Structures are given as structure tokens and as C-alpha cells.
Amino acid sequence: MKGVGCAAILLLFGMAGPAHSEASPDADGAQPRQNHINAHVILGEALQIKGDLDGAIAEYQKAINAEPENYLAHYDLGIALYAKGDLDGAIIEYRKSIRIAPNNYLAHNHLGAALYGKGDLDGAIAEYYKVFQTNPDYLDAHYNLGIALYDKRDLDGAIIEYRKAIRLESGDFRAHNNLGVALSDKGDLDGAIAEFRKSIRLNADYTHAYGNLGAALNAKGDFDSAIIECRKAIRIHADEPNSHYILGNALRNKGNIGGAVIEYGEAIRLQPDHPDAHVNLGAVLHQKGQIEDAITEYRRAILIKPALPNAHYNLGLAFQAKGNLEGAIAEFREAIRLNPKFDNAQKSLAGLLESKSDLKAASGEMRKALKPGR
Question: In this predicted structure, what is the pLDDT of residue 124?
């Protein structure tokens, strides 16, 4: 069962501000020319603030045509392209800006965000660390680095970076929330709950923190409090699928199967590709005796995310309940392939093999399940 909801991923960055190029007047009229180039950059920034990205891009390109080594124009063009969703173009422009001005820590931070968006976590992490060579206390880079390290499953590293961000800005509610998520994944539920509550105190409308708090309370066994927090999240933002999903988990744990079915269904309506909601909806339908409907949900989960051990295991249980033993064996084997330490799948497979009189194979599976240190 899925635990705490996702971290609120918000890659932080800002415009370069008023640091435009300057040149001293000389005999050949360099100053008027430079002023003309700067005017394109300034106009581009103004258009971008107004939301006219195409107009901004055109102005930055005019500045670059007039002065190809203008680091600020390349940097601002990268921001505009990123906002347009052109990550490849943004990466090119940030790198041009950095080649011209290697100490432009803002460009390194933005390049990290663009690389993160492309799924290049190692590249993003490298750029965030470069920020600290020039500005060790740059809040946004610590926050962004925490997100990238979390996604790399370096929970200790992520916790360090979120705490640095909070040291620099104690009122950063997103950093408190994300720190809570990392602490929860480390098994520190009390620490996580404390951080989620801090996030809520700083921003009473931050739905992610309520949902995550609900998930942590659910994991602690405080189902009533979990339900209260999830319903707060839904009152703030009714269209957040994870809030409904986590509420479904808490209701299921309270024994309210009908309520859980409704909440999982709502999570799926809002996010049809939510694999965990499909798995858990299948599980409660199975509990209600609706085996065919459960099989449908497990298959939908696998279609969305094939490498989901619980979905294969639960599908195996459903097949077993329907008398499809060969199908059950195949699903248990797949669950074990995906997670070799999946003890319940090992035991279920051993039991089925034993029932089929394959005692040698059953004995082997049971030895794996009972192996010390698993």
C-alpha cells in the first residue's frame, strides 16, 4: 500500500533582475549600440512578465543577433523557452550563458531545473552543486537539490538539503512538507508529522501537507485523525487525486469498505493513470467478493505500471480465488521477479505448488521465504 503522498515538486528560480550589460562611451559610439541591445533584453523581460513568451523570445533573439556573447540574453531566452516547454532549447541557451559567464549561479540553477525536467537527475544535481561554488546560501538551489536527491532515493541527502533550505528561510512551507515526505520514507513518522504540521501552520491552504499528514497518521494507526486531515485537504482542493487516495486507505483501515471504494474511484476519475488507486480499489472489491471487478482493476494497474509487484501478487490471489491456478502461479512468479524479497508471494507460490504436488519446487519457494535476514 502506498504511504505518504508525493512531495510537492516546485523547482524554484527567478529572473536575473536589472543586471544588464554596461559599456563606457567611446569614440565609435559603443554606448548607444549597447543601450540598443539592452533595450531588447529589457523589453523581452517586460513581455515575459506580461505572459507574451513569443514576443519575449523575439526580443532576446534580436539582442543575441546584435551581440552573440550577451550572457544575459541567452539566460533570459532559456527561461522563456523553458516556460514554453522547450526544455532542449532552454538547455542550449543556459549552457551558452554559462560558457560566457561561468559564475552565473542563476543559470546553473535553471540549467539544473531543465535537466531535471528531462529526467537527467545526475546532470541536474551536478548543476545545483555548481551554484554553491558561487553562492553557497542560494535557497532555491538547496530546495531543488533536495528534490533531485529524493528522486534518486538519496533520502539522507535530500533531508540535509531541505534542512539547509529551512535554515535559510524558516517560513518555506514547501520545504517543510518535502522534508516531512523524506522523513516518512526513512520511517521517522513522528518527525514527518511534525514537519507537515509546520507546513500547515505556515500555509493553512496547502493541500499537499494535509494529505501527507493524513498518510503519516494512517501509517501510525491513527485512522480517525488521518480521515480528518484528508477531508481538510479535499475541502481546500477537491480535485487533488492523492487526497482521495489517502482517504480511501484510511477508510479501508477503519473497515469502511464502501467509503474506500468511493474515494479510490474518485482518485481514478481525477487521475485515470493512478496505478496504486487501481490496485487498492481492486483489493477492496476483492474483499467485497467482486473478484472479476478486482481482476479488471489489477490489470489496469499493470497496464499503467507493469513493474508493480503488489498488482501482480493481488492479481494472483484473485486468479487463485477463481480457480485459475496456472494464472495465479504466473502472477506470483512475476511479483517475486520484481521483488525477490516479497515473502507473501513466495509463501503463496509455495502453497500453490504444494497443492499441485510439485513438492520439490514448493519446498524451494518456502526456504526462500523463510531465509534469515529477509
Answer: 98
Q: 323 by DSSP, 3-state: which?
A: coil
The Cα 250–Cα 257 span in angstroms is: 10
Cβ proximity of 167 and 179 under 8 Å: no
Q: Write down all domains in the chain, each with its CATH number in brackets.
A: 33-101 (1.25.40.10)
Residue type, 295: I
Q: Which residues of 208-247 are buried (b: 16+ CB within 10 A; e: fewer)?
A: bbbbbbbbbbbbeebbebbbbbbebbbebeeebbbbbbbb
What pLDDT was estimated at residue 222?
A: 98
CA dihedral 332, 337, 342, 343 (to 10 degrees): 60
Where does residue 15 fall: left (phi above 0), alpha (psi -120 to 50 degrees), or beta otherwise?
beta
Q: How does the average pLDDT of the chain come out, rounded? A: 90
How many Å apart are CA 288 and CA 291, to the nearest integer?
8
pTM over 0.90: no
Can you tell me which residue has the cell 509455495? Answer: 350
Closest CA to 178 of 4, 12, 14: 4
Q: What is the Cα–Cα distance from 264 to 269, expressed in whole angstroms?
A: 9
CA–CA distance, 116 with 17 (Å, rounded to integer):
24
Please report the DSSP string for 334-350 in residue order.
HHHHH-TT-HHHHHHHH
Q: Report yes or no: 180 and 209 within 8 Å, Cβ to Cβ.
A: yes
Spell out the residues 6+ positions from residue 59 whose beta carbon is closer than 8 angstroms to its own. 40, 41, 43, 44, 47
Asked if 245 contacts 230 with a C-beta cutoff of 8 angstroms, the reply is no
Distance of alpha carbon 49 from alpha carbon 69, whole angstroms:
24
Residue 6 gets which letter from DSSP? P
**Residue 372: predicted pLDDT:** 52
